[in-house]
Amino acid sequence: MRKTERYPVSGANSLWHVYDTVPFWKVVKNFIFIQAARYSPFLSWKNFFYRTFLKMKVGNETSFALMVMVDVMFPERIKVGDNSIIGYNTTILAHEYLIDEYRIGDVIIGDRVLIGANSTILPGVTIGNDAIVSAATLVNSDVPEGCFVGGNPMRIIYTKEEMLERNR
């Protein structure tokens, strides 16, 4: 089960109430720095933008590929460990607006994690150290340490023990 905080709304759908949940100018600022980072050819600049302007926790030597889209509303709820790779065009969400409620949850990505291109990580998910997420995966639940996962919806392809055995 994903770890999210749930906030019910009444009347119009929750996205209609967006600026009751997050300030407009915060979204504008975040959007500008996210777009700058998405297109920046320099990994150090991306990490600087994420850490400084978006208040994300980004580990040392972590690499965000071209076009990675981090959460525009709550990027400060995203933490990525050391020496991880976030693949091309991956989306990392820390919020979701539904009809009758919105949800917010921390996204925690461990150390030495590889996330394949075009993956989507939903709010409230933890990805353990040394995990591998296959390309185009919908990460809708926690990923145990050292596992190889993939698919839509995500499933475990190899456990940590199977991965160790495979790599011998």
Order of helices and strands: EHHHEEEEEEEEEEEEEEEEH
Mean pLDDT: 96
Percentage of residues assigned to helices: 10-25%
Stated plainly, the CATH topology is called UDP N-Acetylglucosamine Acyltransferase, domain 1
What's the total helix number?
Answer: 4
**What's the multimeric state?**
single chain
For the secondary structure, the number of strands is 17
Percentage of β-strand residues: 25-35%
Which architecture would the CATH scheme give at its second level? 3 Solenoid
CATH class, named Mainly Beta
What value does the Rg take, in angstroms? 16 Å
Number of domains: 1
Tell me the strand order in the biggest sheet. Answer: 3-6-11-14-16-17
Main β sheet profile: 6 strands, mixed
